[in-house]
Design goal:
The structure holds 2 protein chains of 2 kinds. Chain A is mostly beta strands. Chain A is built from no helices and 12 strands. In chain B, strand 4 and strand 5 form a beta hairpin. The chains are: A mainly beta, B mainly beta.
Chain lengths: 115, 116
């Protein structure tokens, strides 16, 4: 069965420091991978996605992620965190039979940013 | 509309009552999804619509849950005889093409359901 694991439930970083959020997936075929961000009281906003091609993908707000098939990972990175990045981050894999678009989400990582 | 719209934004209901949650997807989006976000369970898929049909209902937790979509647009998620464990945020998302796997799903703000 498809699954997504985000090992870190909560991460705290200082403003200006670098960030890496981990994501591991289990999926039999080539995965479609996503990172979403959810600010308090808000819906989910797509940060970036990987379907195929270049394994390093760039997203909005200065985020990037690297797909590593050998490690079944899709870690999210940002070189310098801003206070406004404090939110909950979800990794997801496109799952199900073809043409459904159903997403399987990880449990989420809450990011706290210290001034 | 400009985005996925869900109503109500908050709903408090008594245990045993029925509730209806509404989702108005982005105009022209053929794929529509319902997810549930609850403490301890994270984000769970409930049901997928392609047009008015629901080829994947595998995430509906019990027969108290049902959903329909009319006119290829608005969808309603109905929960009958609500229980306290139904308390959660119910999120709706829509996607522009039938091949939803390779396209972005746009999420609404959600409906926070509290069963007391």
């Amino acid at each position: 069965a498809q699954s997504v694991t985000q090992p870190d439930i909560h991460i705290t970083v200082s403003e200006g420091a670098s960030l890496e959020l981990r994501c591991n997936y289990s999926y039999g075929a080539t995965p479609y991978l996503f990172w979403y961000v959810q600010s308090p009281g808000q819906g989910l906003q797509l940060l970036l996605k990987y379907f195929s091609g270049d394994t390093l993908v760039q997203g909005i707000k200065g985020f990037e992620a690297e797909f590593k098939r050998s490690q079944s990972s899709f870690n999210l990175r940002k070189p310098s965190v801003h206070w406004s990045d404090a939110a909950e981050y979800f990794c997801a894999v496109g799952a199900g039979s073809s043409n459904t678009g159903k997403l399987i989400f990880g449990q989420g990582t809450t990011l706290q940013v210290k001034p | 509309g400009a985005g996925v719209s869900q109503s109500p934004s908050n709903k408090v209901t008594e245990k045993g009552k029925d509730v209806e949650l509404r989702c108005d997807p982005i105009s022209g989006h053929t794929a529509l999804y319902w997810y549930r976000q609850s403490l301890g369970q994270g984000l769970e898929f409930l049901i997928y619509f392609q047009g008015n049909s629901a080829p994947d209902k595998s995430g509906l937790p019990s027969d108290r849950f049902s959903a329909e979509r009319t006119g290829g647009s608005v969808s309603t998620l109905t929960i009958q005889r609500t229980q306290q464990e139904d308390s959660a945020v119910y999120l709706c998302a829509s996607s522009p093409t039938p091949q939803g796997m390779s396209t972005e799903a746009f999420f609404g703000q959600g409906t926070r359901l509290t069963v007391v």
